[in-house]
């Protein structure tokens, strides 16, 4: 069930020739709108795994992303002795939706269930509180950034690469052909 009333009082908010219905308790901001492109090249699988861990701000033991290389590049290359790998990332952030968390913005169902809770927690009879948390959760999402990301990955034989034919240039050209629909 919903904690916050994000539906009532909807109004049309225009963005890039489209109108979006946004509730009165929600703020839509396009100040966050950005578009980023980046290219990373890797001469080893370990470099790719370190990059992946860093880009998702992962913690834990090294090697947790070892299956990621095969998924990303479509092959299970243990070492990149004869090949180089590249990853081209295109990330877009369109807008941010923010919900002001305060009792006035809560749904009627949530307010009623809060009123129905006992004034004190009874360890001998926790069911009412547990059911409340099952229905509404323990966290409230008050902000969402809308956007997306597309990663384009490729490998190339090192013998095919040169100063004028770099993997960086190849992955950018391939990505451009891919998104324009003219890849061969």
UniProtKB/TrEMBL annotation:
Pfam families hit by this protein: MACPF
InterPro entries: MACPF (IPR020864)
Residue ranges constituting the MACPF domain according to the UniProt record: 1-184
This protein's name: MACPF domain-containing protein
Organism: Pseudomonas palleroniana
